[in-house]
């Protein structure tokens, strides 16, 4: 078989038959539809390109089998009407782990009435071994400052009822310091490191905390009849590292009250989360939801409770895994072909409809004339 006959036979399979140029009619309407179609194709192509270049995040839910790890709770909380000298931070969990009057990894910054940072109080430490007034122990045999005495009392489970009778407190002017800071506030920032257990809590409350007969107690006697306004602003509170798209419900949350001795309670449900980035890096963090409750404590009437901010958290047994991924090039190519073919087909139908409608209209007008 000759090459000419082969080419002739091959032409039978042409799915795109062509018409002669002499039989084609170009119209103004067809040009308009072509331009509009080209613009639509371009816009849809750009949209498809952006979709292809964007990162898709998929999510999966699993049972969390990891235990015995640590969780870092990052925070930045301001108490505009509670001085740093009387504020303490404690944590405890269902496993019995307690951290009282935490100072490690947490900073306290004094702020004035206008919310501006002010200088920290400076304590003068003695070189001699001061008395702990009966609260000496193996770890602390000397108390060279008022804070040392308070700490020794706390470890013994005693309340420091009269700081005026403590030599260190008198020399440092502890009572005068409290008076000077009466109108000051406190900004607490940093992080807590807690065990990853089923449930736990941490709180901000006035007075030194200690254990007495297996009960968590705060020493408020040394402050006399002082009022405690626990209004606060939570600038930041997160359970773990930040990852793209995370929303912490308490960030920027503000609670203010003119009444004293308010007990603010936050009940948080924590969901462990793992976020895997495109490069394979994993961020282990947590998401949470929260409910709130407010109660006013009447200390003079011996009502049970303590003014402060109490945050109770419970860990979910499930874990969410997020993973970033890009769309395949085949998916992008399919989308582009669908755009071009779809727009071209619809434009052809519209062009045919406009052309034949105009032609029929001319015929009818000719008959009418």
Automatic annotation (TrEMBL):
Signal peptide: none annotated. It is found in: Endoplasmic reticulum-Golgi intermediate compartment membrane; Golgi apparatus, cis-Golgi network membrane. Its main location: endoplasmic reticulum. It is a multi-pass membrane protein. This is Endoplasmic reticulum-Golgi intermediate compartment protein 3. Residues 10-99 form the Endoplasmic reticulum vesicle transporter N-terminal domain. Keywords: Membrane, Transmembrane, Transmembrane helix. The chain crosses the membrane at residues 25-46, 329-350. GO terms for biological process: endoplasmic reticulum to Golgi vesicle-mediated transport; retrograde vesicle-mediated transport, Golgi to endoplasmic reticulum. InterPro entries: Erv, Erv_C, Erv_N. It comes from Trichoplax adhaerens. Belongs to the ERGIC family. It comes from the Eukaryota. Residues 132-351 form the Endoplasmic reticulum vesicle transporter C-terminal domain. One of its GO terms (cellular component) is COPII-coated ER to Golgi transport vesicle. It holds the Pfam family ERGIC_N.
């Amino acid at each position: 078989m000759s090459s000419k006959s082969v080419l002739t036979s091959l032409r039978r399979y042409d799915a795109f038959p062509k018409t002669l140029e002499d039989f084609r009619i170009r119209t103004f309407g067809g040009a308009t539809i072509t331009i509009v179609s080209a613009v639509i194709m371009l816009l849809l192509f750009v949209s498809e390109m952006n979709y292809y270049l964007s990162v898709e995040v998929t999510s999966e839910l699993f049972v969390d089998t990891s235990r015995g790890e640590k969780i870092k709770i990052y925070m930045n909380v301001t108490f505009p009407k509670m001085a740093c000298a009387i504020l303490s931070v404690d944590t405890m969990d269902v496993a019995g782990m307690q951290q009282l009057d935490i100072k490690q990894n947490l900073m306290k910054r004094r702020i004035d009435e206008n919310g501006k940072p002010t200088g920290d109080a400076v304590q003068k430490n003695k070189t001699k071994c001061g008395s702990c007034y009966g609260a000496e122990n193996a770890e602390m045999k000397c108390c060279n400052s008022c804070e040392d005495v308070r700490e020794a009392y706390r470890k013994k489970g005693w309340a420091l009822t009269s700081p005026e009778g403590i030599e260190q407190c008198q020399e440092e002017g502890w009572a005068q310091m409290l008076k000077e800071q009466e109108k000051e506030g406190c900004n607490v920032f940093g992080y807590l490191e807690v065990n990853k257990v089923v449930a736990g809590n941490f709180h901000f409350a006035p007075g030194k905390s200690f254990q007495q007969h297996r009960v968590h107690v705060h020493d408020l006697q040394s402050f006399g009849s002082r009022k405690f306004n626990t209004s606060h602003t939570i600038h930041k509170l997160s359970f773990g590292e930040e990852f793209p798209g995370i929303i912490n419900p308490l960030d920027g949350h503000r609670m203010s009250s003119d009444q004293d001795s308010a007990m603010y309670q936050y009940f948080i449900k924590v969901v462990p989360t793992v976020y895997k980035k495109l490069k394979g890096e994993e961020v282990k963090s947590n998401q949470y939801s929260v409910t709130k409750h407010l109660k006013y404590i009447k200390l003079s009437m011996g009502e049970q409770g303590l003014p402060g901010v109490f945050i109770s958290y419970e860990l979910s047994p499930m874990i969410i895994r997020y993973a970033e991924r890009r769309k395949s090039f085949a998916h992008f190519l399919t989308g582009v072909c669908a755009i071009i073919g779809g727009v071209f087909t619809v434009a052809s139908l519209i062009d045919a409809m406009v052309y034949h409608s105009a032609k029929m209209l001319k015929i009818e007008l000719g008959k009418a004339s």
